[in-house]
Design a protein that fits this description.
transferase; binds magnesium ion; binds inosinic acid; metal ion binding; single chain; cytoplasm; 4 helices; hypoxanthine phosphoribosyltransferase activity; globular
């Protein structure tokens, strides 16, 4: 799903969201219900492609935890209602690279012991994070690696990485909610929203 640069988003007044974020957001870019519905379709596409292979879902924390959990839930439900049951293992890695809304040079990968076959991720911004992670996973020579990311940003940067599955292509804006954070804030917001200048200043570190 393409969200164009001139899409104004939904007015915040049309939805509910935590009171502690009143005044900090510009608009609702993607309401929670649409995120969940789109994720269900990604789960179906993934199921179709993996055939009879077992999978290891590698969730990229912290921003990917909501997407990963919903994706796994949908894969479970779809596979329960079909003939073939897909066996799934789940593992987690943590990556950290952002400071305020800027991608930082040094990146840490923490955790993850069972790296193979599939990854579940929150957002591909510049694509730098994903490339570092993939370089690390490829060392384990998995039979197949597929990357699922909820969001892909239209950045002007040339090293743009494209995941195998993604939910939405969005403008090059800093977004929060559905586990995506700005300096650890806004993870407790259900919708994906655009943060405003007031919000950025309030939670700047
Ligand atoms: P990249 O290396 O620029 O692709 O950044 C990827 C990571 O940065 C993601 O996994 C997110 O954790 C974080 N990130 C990038 N853009 C945003 C954003 O708009 N909001 C919140 N986090 C973001
Ligand atoms: Mg972050």
């Amino acid at each position: 799903i393409q969200i164009s640069d001139n899409w104004p988003g939904y007015s915040l007044d049309l939805f509910t969201y935590p009171q502690h974020y009143y005044g900090d957001l510009e608009n609702v870019l993607i309401p929670h219900g649409i995120i969940v519905d789109r994720t269900e379709r990604l789960a179906k596409d993934i199921m179709q492609d993996i055939g009879d292979n077992d999978i290891v879902v590698l969730c990229v924390l912290k921003g990917g935890y909501k997407f990963c959990a919903d994706l796994v839930e949908h894969i479970k439900n779809l596979s329960r209602n079909s003939e073939r049951f897909i066996s799934m293992k789940v593992d987690f890695v943590r990556l950290k690279s952002y400071h305020n809304d800027q991608s930082m040079q040094d990146m840490q990968i923490i955790g993850g012991d069972d790296l193979s076959k599939l990854t579940g991720k929150d957002i591909v911004g510049t694509g730098r994070t994903m490339k570092v992670l993939l370089n690390n996973i490829e060392k384990y020579k998995p039979k197949m690696i597929k990357v699922a990311s909820l969001l892909v940003k239209r950045t002007s940067r040339p090293d743009g990485y494209r995941p195998d599955y993604y939910g939405f292509e969005i403008p090059d804006l800093f977004v929060v909610g559905y586990a995506l954070d700005y300096n650890e804030h806004f993870r407790d917001l259900n919708h994906i929203c655009v943060i405003n200048d007031h919000g950025k200043a309030k939670y700047r570190v």
